[in-house]
Specification:
- The chain has 110 residues and is α+β, with helices and mostly antiparallel strands.
- It has two domains: 47 residues, no CATH class; 51 residues.
- Helices cover 44% and strands 17% of the residues.
- The protein has a five-stranded antiparallel sheet.
- Strand 4 and strand 5 form a beta hairpin.
- Helix 2 crosses helix 4.
- It is extended.
Amino acid sequence: MFVYLCKINLKKHHMAILKTTTPIAVLRKKFGKYAIFTEYNDKIIMRSRPDYSKRIWTDAERETRQRLKDACKMTRLILDDPVRRAEYEIKCAPEQSLYNMVRYQLMKKI
């Protein structure tokens, strides 16, 4: 299926390039455990998933990831409470999503 949908030029690229008219071009994200579709210069590229299994994370990276995880949990708790949600909806700018605004506020506090 990918051979039919992908235009591959191995002299220039080592990745498969999809035409934007193909149905699979809508995916643009993770495709199973093996491939990711990303967009570079108005072209959709299919590439392998990065392997972080042998990556050694620093303490600062672990701490930042934990802060983000905690902020996401707290954001869900705030948005599930109707009273607190209404308070944040008043503060939220029209072009900003409520979830992102609440998470940003919490990340500054943590």
